[in-house]
Design goal:
68 residues, mainly alpha, 0% strand
């Protein structure tokens, strides 16, 4: 891990986080369906039906890219 993170020019923890995030995205990329019970479906449908809320823009951007 240390050698790979050095080659990538990153810390070990950041390297591992990026690698894990990439692996999770690849694993889940083709999963487009999911099952919900009736109560869960109603809650999901209600959330989708709400008006979008305004999220204020941050005052400044982070100094480095976050993998998520």
């Amino acid at each position: 891990m240390e050698s790979a993170s050095e080659v990538a020019g990153d810390t070990v923890s950041s390297f591992v986080l990026v690698a894990a995030t990439t692996a999770a995205r690849e694993l889940l990329a083709d999963r487009t369906g999911f099952r919900l019970g009736e109560e869960q479906w109603r809650a999901f449908d209600t959330a989708l039906s709400r008006e979008p809320r305004h999220v204020p823009r941050p005052d400044r951007c982070p100094s480095h890219a976050h993998p998520l």
